[in-house]
Design a protein that fits this description.
Chain lengths: 399, 319
């Protein structure tokens, strides 16, 4: 507070300025207490104050700066008090006078009361570390294993978490999650991924669980859904219902199949809807899978719907056009669609070089596309290419 | 040089991350895959190093001293591990922004191959290496008969033409004439008056480095492989960039009365560093990088001239 600092500096020399600044420091700045028409004087005085404080800092050993300060003080005599004097009379009298009968302790007096609960103000911060040793909430969250440094980058989250009380605001949610079946050692990860759950209404959360129970999900599958996708509980029942309805009607799934899909890939269900629809479009129109194949793809490997559309199509094109894999083979082993294109390209072209690229199951020396992409490079070399890894590594450097 | 392609996974001998961090200074060689940007490569390397360092034994949190109790009585001084220094609160001990990593030969998105990088304090060495302007060698593949809008295979094909009549010897002749034209340019770039005695004396000695950093200077173009319509050129150059090499292939196509597109640009040598040295993306780990730093520093120590060139003449060196 620059004004308070001024008070102590100015009070040594000029009693009038003393009066003003005491008044200022008592009532949190000019603008609050001065009437509107005195705005101008208020700004005048503040400008002068900042001047003084800057003068005083270098005034210790130079005489001429002392002089200039005196000049400025005279300025105050002429301008500032004239405006402020009437405002002082306007104030409620007891509010102004009560500090006269309070005897302030001197600096060297012995303190007789317990002041351990007094501390500095809580100032704004951009990291949890500042209050980590003071706030019990943060310490408990750390003990749970919540990665607070990840949360603090989310907008508004820092302020929100710091205002929470662990027993009052967080404990009910932890008991709720525990009742849902989230294991204790996973709670930290859960809250890291989804700190927003603390903002949700408890009744809403119970309703969302009840919705799942009403649709005949058993307790184990609810546990898997929530653990796999911590954000599931943020979606309203209406939203979830619409999404499940989308999958059921678009892929002609039976009730049980919807349940299997939800348990298997709860994060696909709550993924961005426009992305899901775009991928459905690509798989239907660009890749030309028929309805039955699409359903099979969705049930065996739902993650295809999450993959970036362009990359998915590029891999499909490579597998279909370059490697000559037919649709029915791809549906049987859709894992190849989730593989990175570079990895597929490297391994396929190596097999072509070795003359071992033979993906037709009816012919001898058949290489299954699934084993082609799974496993490390060493496993690939030993099991499929039947060479040493050195040769393969040297080949990789020619790309 | 012995090939060290198969790098066995060694358990960390040093378990303290602080020691590992201190020795993580040096020049190393990585293989940059095509279709990945330089910054992506850099981020991946740093990310992997961070992961490895954080998985090792890291610094424990500092002690927090607090004075507790009633102020009127005797107070207690308690120390406990500070929560303000807990990895969950302040983040992992080694973070992406802690690392400095730059490369000596910048490879654009479409190029691949050897990239010499310096980490932390050794970025100074990289600046020296760059200033000494060592030549880099490229294998540039091209295809005859088609031209694209960005001179590379990723672009849209804008023109097709016949190429059956083009034979190997024509390409060789064209390469030789392009090389001769570039070498004539060498004297202009070197900054000496071509009519002077000094220019004559340099010309007697052989090839020269360019004086400034901007003008690409090609020293040799050779066709090493030709199976119509594909051909492979070996180019040695200083101050080159990806676009220059692509245009070179394009120009070659036009001079052959056809069109050509570049399909691959692979940097296989930079200064005395070889592609054998380069670490593949799957090997970008702390242990491998530390081993690689050792190998690269052997080369740098044996050839001090790599870091400080006194002679403008390009000399042949075998290691």
């Amino acid at each position: 507070m620059p004004l308070q600092r001024c008070y102590s500096l100015v009070s040594i020399s000029r009693p009038v300025a003393n009066l003003i600044t005491r008044f200022v420091s008592k009532s949190n700045g000019f603008n609050q207490c001065l009437p509107k028409e005195h705005d101008k004087s208020g700004t005048n005085v503040t400008i002068f104050d900042s001047n003084i404080s800057s003068e005083c800092t270098k005034a210790d050993n130079e005489n001429y700066t002392w002089k200039s300060r005196h000049n400025l003080n005279e300025n105050v005599n002429t301008t500032a008090p004239r405006h402020i004097q009437p405002t002082i009379t306007n104030l409620p009298s007891e509010d102004f006078l009560d500090d006269q009968d309070v005897t302030l302790p001197n600096p060297l007096d012995t303190c007789t009361e317990d002041i351990s609960d007094i501390g500095p103000y809580l100032t704004p911060t951009f990291t949890f570390a500042k209050y980590a040793n003071k706030s019990r909430t943060i310490q408990e969250l750390v003990k749970l294993g919540v990665s607070l440094y990840k949360i603090e980058s989310k907008k508004g989250m820092l302020n929100y978490i710091l205002t929470l009380d662990f027993d009052r605001d967080i404990k009910p949610y932890i008991t709720f999650l525990h009742d849902c079946g989230v294991p204790a050692d996973y709670l930290g990860d859960f809250l890291t991924k989804n700190p927003n759950i603390l903002k949700e209404d408890m009744d809403d959360l119970h309703t969302r669980i009840r919705y799942l129970r009403a649709h005949e999900f058993n307790i184990d599958s609810i546990k898997t859904i929530i653990c796999k996708n911590p954000k599931w509980l943020l979606y309203s029942t209406k939203d979830i219902d619409g999404r499940l309805g989308y999958f059921q009607s678009n892929f002609k799934l039976s009730g049980n199949e919807v349940r299997i899909l939800t348990v298997k890939a709860s994060n696909v269900i709550t993924y961005k809807m426009s992305h899901l629809m775009e991928n459905t479009m690509t798989i239907k129109e660009d890749m030309d899978f028929n309805e039955k194949q699409r359903k099979q793809l969705l049930l065996t490997l739902p993650r295809i719907w999450v993959k970036n559309r362009e990359k998915l199509f590029a891999v499909f094109q490579y597998a279909h056009d370059e490697m000559q894999l037919q649709h029915n083979l791809l549906v049987k082993m859709p894992h190849i669609l989730l593989c990175r294109k570079t990895r597929l390209q490297q391994r396929h072209s190596f097999l072509v070089e070795m003359k071992k690229a033979q993906y037709d199951p009816s012919k001898p020396m058949y290489v299954s596309p699934k084993t082609l992409i799974s496993g490390t490079d060493a496993e690939f070399c030993i099991n499929i290419a039947k060479t040493s890894v050195d040769v393969y590594n040297a080949f990789l450097k020619t790309f | 040089m012995k090939t060290r392609t198969l790098i066995p996974k060694i358990k960390h001998v040093v378990s303290d991350a602080r020691i590992a961090w201190n020795v993580l200074n040096g020049v190393f060689a990585v293989y940059k895959p095509p279709a990945v940007t330089y910054l992506n490569t850099r981020d991946t390397i740093i990310y992997r190093l961070c992961e490895d360092l954080n998985s090792m034994q890291v610094r424990p949190p500092i002690q927090h001293v607090c004075i507790e109790g009633d102020t009127t009585e005797k107070m207690e001084v308690v120390t406990h591990p500070s929560y303000a220094d807990h990895p969950l609160v302040v983040g992992p001990r080694y973070q992406l922004k802690d690392f400095k990593l730059i490369c000596a030969n910048y490879l654009n998105t479409n190029s691949s191959g050897l990239m010499i990088c310096g980490i932390n304090d050794s970025t100074k060495l990289i600046h020296k290496l760059k200033a000494s302007k060592p030549p880099s060698s490229y294998k540039v593949k091209g295809i005859l008969g088609q031209a694209t809008d960005n001179y590379f295979k990723t672009g849209k094909i804008v023109e097709r033409s016949t190429y059956k009549y083009i034979k190997r010897d024509v390409i060789d002749r064209m390469c030789a004439s392009m090389q001769a034209a570039h070498q004539r340019k060498m004297f202009e770039v070197s900054g000496i008056d071509i009519q002077s005695q000094a220019a004559y004396e340099f010309a007697v000695k052989g090839l020269m480095r360019p004086a400034n950093n901007d003008i690409p200077m090609v020293y040799s173009i050779k066709c090493v492989d030709f199976t119509s319509p594909e051909f492979t050129l070996e180019i040695v150059a200083i101050n080159e960039n990806e676009m220059y090499l692509k245009t070179l292939v394009h120009d070659l196509g036009i001079q052959l009365h056809s069109v050509a597109t570049c399909t691959q640009i692979l940097c296989f040598r930079y200064a005395l560093f070889n592609l054998d040295l380069a670490l593949l993306p799957k090997h970008w780990e702390l242990q491998n990088i530390l081993d690689n730093i050792e190998q690269c520093h052997d080369i740098l120590n044996q050839n001090r001239s790599l870091l400080k060139q006194k002679n403008p003449i390009l000399t042949k060196q075998n290691n």
